Amino acid sequence: MLTVLHRLILPTEGLEQCDAMYVRPVLPECIAEPASQIFLVRAEQGFTFDTFYNAFSVKKWKQTGGISRLAFSLRASGQGEVVLFHRSSAGIVTPVWRKKIKGETCCVEEIPAWHTLSDGLIYFSITATQDCRVEAAYFATSSPMLQVPQLGVVITHFNRQHYVRNSIHRVRQALLPDPAYQDSIHFIIIDNSANLDPADVPGAKVIKNHNYGGSGGFARGLLYLNEQGTFTHCLFMDDDISCEVEAIRRCYAMLAYSADKQIGLAGTLLDDCKPWSVQEKGAAFSDGVFRALHVGEDVRPVENLLKLEQDAGKPVYGGWWFFAFRLDAVSAYPFPFFVRGDDALFGLMNRFNIVTLNGIACFSEHFLSKENAFTRYLGMRASLAIYLMMGEARTLPALKMMGLAFLWCALSCRYQSAHAILLAFQDVNKGPAFWRQNLDFMPLAKRIQKETTCRKDDIYFQSEPFMYMGRPETRLRKYIRLLSLNGHLLPQCCLCKTPVYVGEYTRGLLGLTFRYQHIVYRKYESQDIFEAELDASQFFRLVKAFIKTALVFVLKASALKRSYRKNLPELTGKKFWQRVYRS
């Protein structure tokens, strides 16, 4: 009996699409409902599937340890030829199997070369001499599963009913009717907003929950799965499930054939404005800084696919937009961060062996376009707390991390964000008791004043001189800029009264904003802008408060580190969350 590992897929209606991620050279002609994946190859046409979604990764599937045999199956009709190729990591392409299509063709062919391969990609091409109809193509194995996962897909929801309704509907149509998954994959929605009607998401279990953020929602999901006693694996997902349903099938297969009890399968995060661009494919941690791997890589060129399957660093966690693991590998539950940092610490504490795979991916608005004072508060307090709990926790690197983030915002007149980073520093200084007392983060959020953004039309950005690249500056100008604290010490007569228009994440930002009284910022990859005004008195109030907070941190750094590390097991314990949800 064959187990399907990897199906051919074409773009799915409702998802961000880029044809070159599915097939080359252009999209085949669909002749049925898009969900059916049936397509037509006209006479003299040819298509190749050495792409992000359809090329089969030799190294990653071999690393599971459970696949000793590999087969390729095709169901087609017409006249033509299908050829299976192997592209090595060195870029050498070798045909490994070929078959003529004559009339109705349904074949399952073992791939003998599988035993000799260790890396690279396997993919197929199809060329038609007369019109060919392709109904299905997939890679499968006759090797028995190492285990039959009972997979609980935990989705934390908060006030995004439209997204979760549509996503569950799409999954229910494409996945749940399949007998292979009906009794093996179960969807659990943790409804933090307590306003989702279970009738709107048939096929999913809805659990009303108090809003303790993503940390609390996913912890509640873990508690539920463990209480049932039947689940073996868990998959954390965002509530819009913006991924191909096939990604869930491939995830299930990889879990079923993995001999690694510590496997953590992390989905690649792609940019929904540029679907071919990677935001994160695993992430590393060093000196309190989390660094996304493969940032900005283009998944369209086949040469990049081979590079993407090589770890660019040591990945230590996967984002909870798509992260799967064995339940018996979990020794630590999420830390009560509310959001931001919870997935990172979860990965670090449970010491998962992080695996990423081309073709298992989600789409999201770019991280930088979502950054504001509120998210900077959440991100910086998590980074510092995790550094104290899991990193080397040296005082100077911690001060550097917080200080550089604070100064970058304060010197560029984004005082709301600078104040948010200051609050994050102060809150972490309060020690572990702070986290116990502030599980419900929303009252704290009122302290943070966000930048006021507004949306503009395209013509606005064409008519105003927005700058997205830094300018060369003389050594003298640079010294004056540094000594004047980017203009905050200059008299009013030395400041430019006309606004400067800049992208918020422009390289050389401080040089571009120097000597301007008024700054108009454009959010990353969006039509949103916000405005900032140079205010020396506000700047120095913030700097004074930051210095005071930094001195407090220096004096109590050793005690803080000891306290955090002593309390970490309790704050990430199963019993902690059981008490939370019993109260």
Could you characterize the architecture of this molecule?
- The chain is α/β, with parallel strands linked by helices.
- It has three domains: 3-141, Jelly Rolls (Sandwich), CATH 2.60.120; 151-364, Spore Coat Polysaccharide Biosynthesis Protein SpsA, Chain A (Alpha-Beta Complex); 373-538, no CATH class.
- It is built from 16 helices and 26 strands.
- The strands form five sheets. Strands 1, 2, 3, 4, 5, 6, 7, 8 and 9 form a nine-stranded antiparallel β-sheet that branches.
- α8 packs antiparallel against α9 (415-429), α8 (395-411) runs antiparallel to α15 (536-571) and α9 runs parallel beside α15 (536-571).
- The longest helix has 36 residues, at 536-571.
- It is globular.
- The two termini are 50 Å apart.
Topology:
Blueprint: E1 3-7, E2 29-30, E3 39-41, E4 46-48, E5 56-57, H1 58-62, E6 71-87, E7 93-102, E8 105-110, E9 121-141, E10 151-157, H2 161-174, E11 185-191, E12 204-208, H3 213-228, E13 233-237, H4 245-257, E14 263-266, E15 268-271, E16 278-280, E17 283-286, E18 289-292, H5 302-308, E19 322-326, H6 342-350, E20 353-355, E21 361-364, H7 373-390, H8 395-411, H9 415-429, H10 432-437, H11 442-445, E22 453-455, H12 458-463, E23 466-467, H13 475-483, E24 500-503, H14 509-513, E25 518-522, E26 528-533, H15 536-571, H16 574-582
Parallel strand pairs: 10-11, 10-13, 11-12, 14-20, 15-21, 23-24, 24-25
Antiparallel strand pairs: 1-9, 2-3, 3-9, 4-9, 5-9, 6-7, 6-8, 6-9, 13-19, 14-19, 15-16, 17-18, 22-26, 25-26
Helix pairs in contact: 3-16, 7-8, 7-9, 7-15, 8-9, 8-15, 9-15
